[in-house]
Amino acid sequence: MFRSRSWFGGGLWKPKNPHSLEHLKYLYHVLSKNQTVSENNRGLLVETLRSIAEILIWGDQNDSSVFDFFLEKNMLSFFLRIMKQKCGSYVCVQLLQTLNILFENIRNETSLYYLLSNNHVNSIIVHKFDFSDEEVMAYYISFLKTLSLKLNAHTIHFFYNEVNEHTNDFPLYTEAIKFFNHSEGMVRIAVRTLTLNVYRVEDVSMLAFIRDRTAAPYFSNLVWFIGNHIIELDTCVRNDADHQSQNRLSDLVAEHLDHLHYLNDILCLNISDLNKVLSEHLLHKLLVPLYVYSLMRHKNFLCQNQEERKHVSIVVALFLLSQVFLIVSHGPLVHTLAAVMLLSDFETIQTGASKVLEMYGDISSDKPIAFSPPKESLEKSLENLSESLTVSDDLYEEENNLEEKKDTVNTENGNEEVSGTNRASTSFNSVSTVTVPVLMSPEQLDIPAEDLEEIKHLNVTDEEKEQILALESPLTPQTQKNITESLSNKPFLETILNSLFCTENDYAALFALCLLYALANNQGIDRKTLDPILCNSQSSTTTLYNEILIDRLIHIITLSCQTNARVRLVTLELTIKLLIQLVMSEGQSMLKDSHLTAIEAAKEQSTSLLKNFYKSEDIFLDMFEDEYSEIQKRPLNVEWLMMDSNILLPPTGTPMTGIEFTKRLPCGDVERARRAIRVFFLIRDLSLTLNMEAETQLPLTNPANCIQVDNVLDLNNSDIISCTIVWKDGQKIRRFIVIDVKQLILVEPDTSKLGWGVAKLVGFLQDIEVAGDKDDSRCLYLTIYKPLSSSTGNRVPLLSAKFIFDDHIRCMAAKQRLTKGRIKARQKKMNQIARLLDIPTSIPHATTPPNYALRGFRCERLGRGQRLKDHQLRPMFTVNKVPGFAAQMRRENVARATPGLSSTPKRGDTTSNEKSHENGLRSRDNSPKMPRPRSEEIPLEDMRLRKASLTSNGLTISHICEEKKDGQISACSTNGEPSSVIRKHSEETSFTCPQEVKPPRRKGQVETV
Amino acid sequence: MVEPIFNYQFRLILIGDSTVGKSSLLKYFTDGKFAELSDPTVGVDFFARLIELKDGTKIKLQLWDTAGQERFRSITKSYYRNSVGVLLVYDVCNRASFEHIPQWMMDARRHIEPHRPVFALVGCKLDLVTNGSRREVSKEEARAFADQHGVHHIETSAKTGINVEEAFRTVTQEVYSRIQTGEYKLEDGWDGIKTGFYKPSGFDFNLIEAEPAETSCC
Fold first, then answer.
1. Is B188 an 8 Å CB contact of chain A?
2. Which domain of life, per UniProt (chain B) (predicted)?
């Protein structure tokens, strides 16, 4: 019976196909039967609303009759009716979601326009949802955002109801900005996106509404909101103990960046009316009073009567200002701010006299502008904002009332606020009006008028007047005389320049540098304003830069070359970057000789600092090249630097903070070496730039001289070893190994030219690792690493595979040549470094005596060009040069005169020694007939021991003694093991050239004997 | 709830200056009511009504009301294309609204191309004239204009309801006649004319039984 009724009732049948007109009809039926929301039908309604969105979107793209039905039944009205009932968040959320989906997806513009028509949407927007419910809030704000994305010159009329007898409102905007300071970040972001979408619509009357009705309250509150974040940030920095608050700080810095980017986004829309109001608020209520005034060393001067005047620490102020100048480029704003910061002097700040700036000379700036202090009063206005906005017609008046209220609050609270008000307001207005006459025409703004009245009422006392800050530019042409004199008179500028002293640390110096850099690079600032600071405009003298500034920059550079300098690498790099920018003009250095000398001295200093580390670490060469590529790959980016909240905390040395190496002091010897290397590179580059010379010695490997993959090579008369390469996955390829001076090349024969080959894989010899195979004497395991790239923490192998040679002889040969090649390549580079550091290469004993004995010895032996390179051997390498058997070895070597033989047994480090040890063992097991262990190998094991025992032996003789000693030591160690242990080295030592196989054998015999 | 059965569906649009009475005309036509006060249309509005022609053919009219205000001009233009009939509405007591008719007509024509809509020139607020207000557009002048352009002319009052039905009926009849003569054809992708449902059965065979709604009345 029920069934039959529903049959005739129609529509109670749920069609199988959810995407059909029938389904929508069914849903309509459900809606019309359930117009009152109740506990029972709640679930049904939510499901219905959800389905409606789905089917409408489907219809929008597939069947116009679906939307026709929606129109005919006026189904939108159901939505509104449901919304107006107190239906609870469950239904509300679905309703908002459905609307959101509709507006987001409907493409058909006639459908969209219909939905937007007749203020239905506006009535949804102004509906008082329960915003305490997070979910409702989220869906509501994203609904608004979606709508804002639909805004354009046509659709704006649906949202902004122009002035007539009934209406002048723009609920989408006014409702949204109420949430500008919502606790949820996503909500704030949505509001910002929305406001930008609104501003972007070029509709004159709408923008007029925005400016006249909402700009002042919105921006003033926004600015207050930002200011509070900054106070919070400052507190966070002040109270930080031991970098505990890195996360919190990082959030706050990110927040500040968001603020600035948002403000800049608005300013970049170039809506002059809006920008005027925004710039004013920013300057009057935030940038000057909070940022710039915080630069004042003696805060009391500014705030005699204000025990709780808000200011932030100098470090934070410098940091924030840098961010401002890095991000915001709106000319009138940054220019004014720069002028206030750089030009205002003590007297003008103190006397509060605001006069015409004769320098710019076209506008009278006597009009004081009052500054509403960011105090409780503004918080009140925050509360009132929402009310005043809803009654948009009265908004203006309310705003005015607020101002008045503020006044009373101020007077009640005592003079301090009032004085603060006046001071700040007058302060930069003078400058701003003067320097940026066009922008700052306060007459047009609401607040100034208000403020004028305020001032009248306030009846400012003399004492207050004294506190009034009038930022009149002192820079009349005559006053340009001596920057030193004027400096002491310019508190803000003085602070900035004094921050450059990094005697204790470079905490503030880094930010001062950033700020100067940002100022110098900000496109919005008139060069004239900067001239007195960044360069002397005294054209009579030869110098075209500010000597004080350059002195201080060079001082930082000099300091950073000291041992245990307290200057971080990033500070040095930024100093150099700034210095180059200031003194280089069209490729020419304008630096005075005295300054240039200072820099050359610094370069010497950095070189000798680095000399101390030369070879003292096993991985010096790798570090050297790594640091170079790092510096090349990642030149300092100041914008990025200033996003890093870590630099806001006092400089630290420990890497356990997670702070990047360049942004902290070095920790331990390795890092000190890395730092010395970097300092050397940086100052070397500076020196070359200033001398207009090109770098010829770095990088150590010139890629232009290297063989590249696919190069076709003439291999006639080259040593070629054929082999089969087996990858881990079992893939096999036949290749020929060619060993160049620097590189290992795998070639395949060129089919077109006999004796030529095509390079298929190229790796640097210095980056290879070779290991034998204990089970197969014809095999080598070869790993070729990619050239250094510290972007990836660990080294990535270019190739890691098993190489199978024709027989074990060839295998040995290959191994020896590869190992030798590696050592030679490294020697060569160490030589290059020595040349860079002015370490005399002909006297190889100069720096690391323990090893020199050996080297000198070997030089003798070798005779050839090897000699020069020898001194570069690292201690580790030299270790291999067998003590005890030296004489014999030398004889052999000399006899054969094989260049590079001496370095044959070298291995990079202890681990590889151990490896070779193992390998030797393996080879012994497998091929007992292999060459006997060569004496050279033995010391490898005891390298450390020996290294320790070896002390400065400058002479060959003493060295021999040393070697003998070593030999004994090693003998001891080897003696402890079965004799086979000694023999295990046989393979190892016998590698490389077949011809060398024999001598080691002999040696081995000697040893075993 | 059974879907009204109709043979054709025509889409008509009302255009003309702001405050000439388009919305009132439509409201009377669909609701039979007249509101003394009404807010200006923001954007567009939609109405639908079924009428039966003399030969018994049932036509569903989809009626788009548009805002006359200049600022919505770009919005309303997108509704022209899918219309087969255009009511050019003016206020008999507002000279300017009549003088703008050629402009409205040209706009419509241009946007409806390549289709050629049926126009009707509709004067509104005839009741004001009978109440003694000054008529600014004479019947003769309007008629002359209509004749010149080959369109129907009619004067109406949404307050008294005089000629309201007639105005829409004329346009509908004309569209239908053009279908009969083959001048208008059904076209995919054009919503000006559509065929309706002939079968009295509104149900598809794929319907399944729904759970009865909790609140449905029995």
1. no
2. Eukaryota
State whether the Cα torsion B205-B206-B209-B211 is positive or negative.
negative
Q: What is the b/e burial string over B76-89, where b = at least 16 CB atoms within 10 angstroms of the residue's CB?
A: bbbbbbbbbbbbbb
The third-level CATH classification (topology) of the domain covering A702-806 is: PH-domain like (2.30.29)
Coil/strand/helix, residue A11: coil
Residues of chain A with CATH 2.30.29.30: 702-806
C-alpha distance from B141 to closest chain A C-alpha (Å):
33
Q: Which residues of B touch A65 (CB under 8 A)?
A: 194
B-chain residues near A72 (CB < 8 A): 46, 48, 62
For residue A569, give the amino acid letter. L
How far is it, in rounded angstroms, from Cα A155 to Cα A975? Answer: 93
Show the tokens assigned to A434.
Answer: 């003067």
Chain A residues lying within 8 Å of B1, measured CB to CB? 9-11, 29
Contacts of B199 (CB under 8 A, 6+ apart): B5
Q: By mean pLDDT, which of A558-572, A698-712, A723-737 is the weakest?
A: A698-712
Bridge partners for B118 per DSSP: B85
Give the pLDDT confidence of A583-638 residue by residue, as tens digits.
887 777 788 888 889 989 999 988 988 888 887 556 788 888 888 888 888 888 88
Cα(A155)–Cα(A886) distance, integer angstroms = 92
User: Tokens for A335?
Assistant: 């220019």
Residue from the list A29, A157, A166 with its beta carbon closest to the beta carbon of B72: A157
**DSSP 8-state symbol, B213:** P
Instruction: Round to whole Å and give the CA distance between A413 and B177.
Output: 83
A693 Cα distance to chain centroid: 30
Largest CA distance in chain B: 62
Put simply, whether B78 touches A (Cβ < 8 Å) is yes
Check if the beta carbon of residue A448 is closer than 8 Å to that of residue A435.
no
Alpha carbon of A574: minimum distance to chain B alpha carbons (Å): 55
The residues, any chain, with a CB within 8 Å of residue A962's CB and separated by 6 or more, are A853, A854, A883, A949, A950, A953
What is the location of CATH 1.25.10 in chain A? 2-202
pLDDT for A249-290, tens place per residue?
889 999 999 999 999 999 999 998 889 889 888 888 888 778
The closest CB to that of A13, out of B2, B44, B207, belongs to: B207
Domains of chain B, with CATH numbers?
8-195 (3.40.50.300)
Other Cβ atoms closer than 10 A to A728: 8
What gap in Å lies between CA A987 and CA A817, rounded to an integer?
13
Strand partners, A14: B208
ipTM: 0.88
Distances, alpha carbon A320 to alpha carbons A323, A511, A523, A662, in Å: 5, 9, 18, 21
Nearest CA-CA partner of A947 in A587, A618, A590 = A618
Token reading at A215: 């700009």
**Tokens 């309007």 correspond to what residue?**
B142
Architecture of the domain delimited by A2-202: Alpha Horseshoe (1.25)
Select from A736, A745, A792 the least CA-distant residue to A764.
A745
Nearest residue on chain B to A1, judged by CA atoms?
B218
